[in-house]
Write a structure and sequence with these properties.
Blueprint: E1 2-3, E2 15-19, E3 25-29, E4 42-46, E5 49-50, E6 54-59, E7 65-72, E8 81-87, E9 110-113, E10 116-126, E11 129-134, H1 138-148, E12 174-176, H2 188-196, E13 200-206, H3 216-219, E14 226-230, H4 232-243, E15 248-251, H5 253-261, E16 272-276, E17 291-295, H6 302-307, H7 313-325, E18 329-330, E19 336-340, H8 356-361
Parallel strand pairs: 1-18, 2-19, 4-13, 4-15, 5-12, 15-17
Antiparallel strand pairs: 2-3, 6-7, 6-9, 7-8, 8-11, 9-10, 10-11, 13-14, 14-16, 17-19
């Protein structure tokens, strides 16, 4: 796989590799995604817009230049306190793994980030991972982010990103640290086609986290804990779909993480806001999601590990060979894969005729 580079403009016909439940591989173009769906399917996407989560500034005690990348928070509404990754001098044009360490940080240090000032509240077990608290009101913090912040960006794209480059067509609440990029497949024409074909579509809101910290030890902790919100209407759509045996298709790994975290032991999805704390991989038992549309991910990343919950390693290896052999582009502005779970549930965990009152009781 090659990295999408030099421009954020998408290909005219981005590629889509499909792996069905039998492990058979097909190559399509991404605009054909709706043709892979069938009447009754339930499709869920993340409607989060991306924050300008990269802030450059100065470590007040040493005077050294730094970059702070917002990486996690306790709730969707939290604006004062974030877990952040701190880099030394440099910018996105340098590979993340080559970025220098920040100056030695201590509890109580001030970080001057344009119009914002933050205090180091706690060191989180790594030289570049801290809990940072901003001064000021939520409104002042919002204004500081929008005036001074930029999208988190990596060296595979050489031109600076504008914030709207990172928003999917369905972007809503600005809570994501990096774009929920699987959603780039969607447009209003595709959604209209899905509706006309009897395919249900709903959304959740999830703070899509950072994809790399540049440090192997810290990367092993990814994804960090991430808050999400599932509307009652979306939970009801999912639960009623599962009761009738419909396929549940997630647009992006963030949707998988949220829905599986919100699943009850008997296979319901609970509405509301929670904090996803789990990692999903080969040993995970998926209760809710039957298929996943995602970007193309590199081996060793948390996103790649999540794919192992859908297909076995032999099939994943064949998929990698096809992606590499046919020049698929990776990263957030690259091509896509569509994976059906190898062993779907039989008819779901519900008995036919589940009381509608029970379905609504979890939403």
């Amino acid at each position: 796989m090659k990295a999408a580079s030099t421009s954020v403009q998408r290909r005219l016909n981005p590629k889509l590799l499909m792996v069905d439940r039998r492990g058979h591989i097909e190559h399509r173009v991404r605009s054909e995604f709706a043709n892979l769906l069938r009447a009754g399917d339930v499709v869920i996407a993340n409607d989060a817009a991306t924050l300008p989560a990269s802030l450059v500034g100065q470590h007040s005690r040493s005077g050294q230049r730094i970059e702070v990348r917002l990486a996690a928070r306790e709730s969707l509404d939290e604006m004062r306190q974030f877990s952040v990754v701190v880099f030394g001098e440099g910018d996105f044009r340098m590979r993340t793994e080559d970025r220098p360490k920040p100056p030695l940080l201590h509890q109580g240090d001030y970080l001057m980030l344009g119009p914002l000032r933050g205090t180091v509240v706690q060191l989180l077990g790594h030289p570049r991972f801290i809990l940072l608290r901003f001064e000021g009101s939520p409104r002042e913090i919002w204004e500081g982010l929008t005036r001074h912040g930029r999208p988190i960006q990596y060296a595979h794209i050489s031109a600076p990103l504008a914030i709207w480059d990172t928003w999917t067509p369905i972007a809503g609440p600005p809570v994501a640290f990096e774009p929920p990029s699987a959603g780039f497949v969607l447009d209003w024409s595709m959604l209209a086609t899905m509706s006309a074909r009897g395919i249900q579509f709903g959304t959740i809101t999830h703070t899509a986290g950072i994809s790399s910290t540049g440090d192997a030890e810290l990367d092993a902790l990814l994804p960090f804990d991430e808050p999400y919100r599932i509307p009652g209407s979306t939970a009801l759509m999912i639960n009623e779909g599962r009761e009738r045996g419909a396929r549940l298709i997630a647009i992006g790994t963030t949707v998988v993480r949220a829905l599986e975290h919100a699943a009850t032991p008997d296979g319901f999805v609970r509405a509301g806001e929670r904090l996803a704390t789990q990692q999903i991989g080969a040993s995970s038992r998926l209760r809710i999601v039957d298929a996943l549309l995602s970007g193309t991910h590199q081996r060793g990343t948390s996103h790649y590990e999540l794919l192992r919950a859908f297909i076995d390693d032999e099939t994943l290896g064949r998929m990698e060979e096809e992606l590499n052999g046919r020049g698929y582009l990776t990263h957030e502005f690259g091509d896509s894969v569509f994976l059906e779970r190898a062993h779907r549930r039989s008819t779901g965990l519900f008995r036919r005729g589940t009381d509608a009152t029970k379905l609504r009781s979890v939403v």
